Amino acid sequence: MIAVSVTLRGPGTESDPEPLFQPSPTNCGQYGPLASFIVDLDPDCSEVVIRLTYALKDGALDVFLSDLVSSADAAPLERLARRIPAYFGLSVTAVDPTDDANVRTVDLADVKKLLKVDFL
User: Which domain of life is it from (predicted)?
Assistant: First the structure.
C-alpha cells in the first residue's frame, strides 16, 4: 500500500502556520481539485491524506491462485505474472488525518486533476 500525505500551509510561520484554506459552507468551491480529498472540515487541520492501494480484487483469490501447481505447461510465477493485470486493481481513498477510520472513496480522475503538471 502506498500512502501519500500532502501538507498545505498558509503564509504563517513554521511553528504557527496559518491554514491555507478556511473551510466554511460558503467557500467550499474554492478548494479546487483538492475538494474531493477533504474528509474532515476542521479549520485547524491543514493536511490531506490520499491513500492509493493496488490490491487483489474482492473474491478473486480462488481464481488468481487456481491451477498453479497442477498445470505443468509453464512456471507458476510466469502464470501469476500474466494474471496480475486481470485480478488486481487500483483504489483511491481520502483519509481523515485525525481519524484513519474516516475514509471516502475517490476517483482516480480526481487524483489526476490534483497532480496535473504543465510545462512551459
Answer: Bacteria
